[in-house]
User: What shape does this take?
Amino acid sequence: MVAPRPKVAAIQMTSIDDVAKNLERAEALTRAAIADGAALVVLPECFAFLGPEDGKFAIVEPLPAGGPILKRFQALAQETRAELVLGGFYEQTPNPRKVRNACVHIGEDGSVRAVYRKIHLFDVDLPDGTKLEESASVVPGDEVVVTDTRLGKLGLSVCYDLRFPELYRQHVERGATLLTVPAAFTLTTGKDHWHVLLRARAIESQCYVIAAAQTGHHFGTRRSYGHALISDPWGCVLAECGEGEGYALASIDEAALQRVRASLPSLKHRRL
Assistant: This one.
């Protein structure tokens, strides 16, 4: 009998400025995805809070030690024996008015396996009037992180990182076969660029891409595009969320990935 292929899930949420409600919803969606067979679940950027800037300073936690938010999901991983990726975690820094936007991999035993700090920060004035200056409150990271999971080596990134293919090239050079892109892509940029960029990263890296997402209206004029999805190494979208909260679920086929890399060995043909 052929063993079933492992599944991954990308959560889609509408986080707001109510931390308790966000965490309750994040846990419920994670549990539902695990009950549906997911061995690895990715939560989106800003899963615990998406509201006015001051709110993030109230929930910062040190890493890897953590606080109540981290411990809640460590306990969940340990209980369910699933691996979790907390897509956008506000990490404490020495400056009380600055945080790090971290991506945390929790193993099935509840331990913190890896922490990635978002390298590329989103500072833009969008045509719809939205002004975002992430660097005003976030300290950028400077380290590429690839972590071991039961499904393969996983390259960690967050949202705006998606626009910088050199990061994902370094993931592949470190052995990644899976890439995760937890995000809160704006409605304005997402409708034109989200699918194109995710499929491009999958195709050029010949990796599975797991992209968790924020969706809908959060506060003020802030709206996110949604469409959490999972792409295979050929760039085909295997699963995608529609409107509202939920999760995309798909199987990971290591043999299929190796066939793609063997039949189109572009990773071996690099000259630069």
Notes: The chain has a mean pLDDT of 95. The chain is about 25% helix and 30% strand. The helical segments are 19-35, 54-57, 68-80, 165-173, 187-205, 254-263. The longest strand covers residues 83-92.
